[in-house]
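Need a sequence for this fold. Nothing fancy.
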């Protein structure tokens, strides 16, 4: 619960800073750019050399990708049927499929299921959510970015991906897999990566508004219901077909129930995809998870 408390404090700090005149209106955007160009690449370099795969642990690696495909399809269908704004659809395509499976996921899994559940949580995060962030999210953010009147070509999208700092860090991290960083490099990466969550959540708090733009309340409510309730229910249904052992199933469902990923929110806001809506989606999702995560833990059985 300490991580929930920290997130709330960061959120409150961001909200309070918005009331201080010395902070310009684009402070949230600037903070998000810092995350995308500094903190997120540091986190990638910190984690990627540790990524391991096992034939016995393919379920937590594959499940987030299956949920991503289902979620993206549901967002596109809902956006078309309910005539949502294109920026809102783009924001949901980036943020909704990805859960906060690292900063919240690790400590929550450890708190609920102990150290034995952590390997499954790490595989779900690193082989699923984390890789999707630096590949899928980059593609979708480039495609829906409203900065250009025309949709980007395949070459433009590829250029954005290849020049995305986190993607460069991903390639570098894979190239360095199996090697150890010098002590000073580890210290540098650890210190920079540690700034990601505080800076992103302060940025979210700075941009958080209870009053959404016209037509955004319904997408927000449906999105949070899907992410916090329906997505883990779908994961539970898929796992029933695969019949893994109990602890693996519990951890995978709990990871699927995590609120929207704050870093994916930074990517969406950085691409100018409905920033106020994204800030509300991430912030309100975190608050709602205070109720939904213990509920899923109770439903799954201790």
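Here you go.
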């Amino acid at each position: 619960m300490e991580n929930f408390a920290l997130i709330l404090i960061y959120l409150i700090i961001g909200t309070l800073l918005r009331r201080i005149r010395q902070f310009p209106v684009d402070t949230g955007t600037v903070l998000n750019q810092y995350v995308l160009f500094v903190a997120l690449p540091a986190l990638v370099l910190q984690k990627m050399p540790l990524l391991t795969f096992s034939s016995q642990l393919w379920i937590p690696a594959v499940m987030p990708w299956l949920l991503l495909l289902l979620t993206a399809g549901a967002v596109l269908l809902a956006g078309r049927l309910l005539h949502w704004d294109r920026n809102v659809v783009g924001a949901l395509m980036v943020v909704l499929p990805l859960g906060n499976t690292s900063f919240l996921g690790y400590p929550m899994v450890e708190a609920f299921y102990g150290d034995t559940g952590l390997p499954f949580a790490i595989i779900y995060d690193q082989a699923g959510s984390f890789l999707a962030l630096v590949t899928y999210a980059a593609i979708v953010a480039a495609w829906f970015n409203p900065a250009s009147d025309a949709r980007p070509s395949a070459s433009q999208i590829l250029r954005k991906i290849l020049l995305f700092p986190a993607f460069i860090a991903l390639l570098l991290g894979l190239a360095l897999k199996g090697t150890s960083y010098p002590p000073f490099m580890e210290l540098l990466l650890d210190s920079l990566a540690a700034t990601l969550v505080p800076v992103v959540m302060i940025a979210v708090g700075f941009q958080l508004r209870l009053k959404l733009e016209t037509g955004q309340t319904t997408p927000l409510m449906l999105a949070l219901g899907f992410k916090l309730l329906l997505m883990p229910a779908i994961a539970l249904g898929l796992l029933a077909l695969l019949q893994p052992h109990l602890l693996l199933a519990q951890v995978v469902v709990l990871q699927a129930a995590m609120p929207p990923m704050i870093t994916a929110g930074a990517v969406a806001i950085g691409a100018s995809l409905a920033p106020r809506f994204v800030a509300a989606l991430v912030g309100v999702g975190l608050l709602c998870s205070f109720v939904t995560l213990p509920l899923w833990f109770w439903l799954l059985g201790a």
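For context: The radius of gyration is 18 Å.
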